[in-house]
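All the exercises in this workshop are built on plain-text protein records. Instead of coordinates, the fold is spelled out as a row of discrete tokens. Once this layout is familiar, the rest of the handout is easier to follow. The record below serves as our worked example for the rest of this section.
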Amino acid sequence: MASRHLSRSIVMQSLYEWDFYGKKDGSLNLIIERNIHDFGPGLEDLDFVRNLAFGIKSHLLSLDKIIEKAAPEWPIAQIPLVDRNVLRIGLYELLYANKDEVPPKVAINESIELAKTFSGKVSGKFINGVLGTIYKQLEENKNIET
């Protein structure tokens, strides 16, 4: 498994647990460190895991609002936990990642693969639809600005 893909898997599992137990203050760091130890021994770029997870945490409300606008028939609380956190990862990378390191299509494809691995094929289609819609809107806004 590629290093970045494994890192995203660890972030997804950590966000899932943190979300499941009510997003308690201070607990995300402990969860991340335990998951790195358990699932990522030898992982070289630990900063990628931490930066991604804490970036998502710091932008959580705005990410969730964007997801709800892109999937209006699915309030954030009704989206399954895995799918919700996979969407947060993909959206965060679409909006905030260095595009040279993580091109938008890579962010979307990685999210689809996470959904297929941890949730199911239907979830992969859902993730693709939501992130594809958001990406299309981002591109349209970029074209309007230029």
About this structure: The CA atoms of residues 71 and 130 lie 6 Å apart.
